[in-house]
Amino acid sequence: MFIDTHCHLDASEFNDDRNAVIARAEHAGVRQIVIPAIGRSNFSTVRQLAHSFAGGYYALGIHPLFVAHAAEDDLEILAQEVERSLADPRFVAIGEIGLDFFVKDIAQGPPRERQEFFYQQQLKLASAYDLPVLLHVRRSQDIILKYLRRYPGVGGIAHAFNGSDQQADHFVGLGFALGFGGAMTFTRAHQIRRLASRVSLANIVLETDAPDIPPAWLHEDHPRNTPEQIPAIAQVLAQLRDQSVDEIAQATGATSLQVLPRLAAS
């Protein structure tokens, strides 16, 4: 069974053919798709979308790129929505949350401090409700880890991982899986591909981040990524590790269920 652990299926890029995209993913063998929220504006959207098809699941959180536009009471709204969703079997995590130091305008000063405040508050929420997190870690792995160590027991997925070997080991040591997707399919992505071949398969999950991060074969002519690409992404991982696609599907699926326990219980 293939699982797309990170897919923004509610994005406007899917407005014209969302049902067809879901059907093609299912036909390709992708049985479960996790849809993270990015902020208060789409909490209800991801919930409703997840309930609209058999393999839909969702996470609730405030994305670091949207923190600048969030109100202070958005964290209160998030806490209320999380509490409300605890009885919902389709709700699996807090996310997408984290830090982004790639975008220069928010990487320093008050914007960065605001990112860190929202990140820590959401970690606190995950800890209080014993929920995993879907982490955005772009150019921010060390600070992400610094805060994680303050909340032992909080695990989840380091989404679109592109850190060092040492950082990868630290995330794994804290109980996190590393998410690999379209970026791994580019031959020039040497560090990501080396990590994907080195890290224990028991600590890897598959993802698309659709409609973003399209794999190499879509990058020029079809820039929109879709969850149906997961089996082909798995094929690249299988080649890098000299393993079969079946082994990749079985292991990454089992890891997804382990780090997102509510996914397994549904």
From TrEMBL:
Metal-binding keyword on record: yes
Sequence positions that bind a divalent metal cation 1: H6, H8, E96, D209
SUPFAM superfamilies: Metallo-dependent hydrolases
One MF annotation (Gene Ontology) recorded for this entry: metal ion binding
Classification via Gene3D superfamilies: Metal-dependent hydrolases
Pfam families per UniProt: TatD_DNase
Keyword annotations of the record: Hydrolase, Metal-binding
Binding site for a divalent metal cation 2: H136, H159
Record bears the keyword Isomerase: no
PANTHER family: D-AMINOACYL-TRNA DEACYLASE (PTHR46124:SF2)
Assigned protein family: Belongs to the metallo-dependent hydrolases superfamily. TatD-type hydrolase family.
Protein's name according to its UniProt entry: DNAase
Organism: Advenella kashmirensis
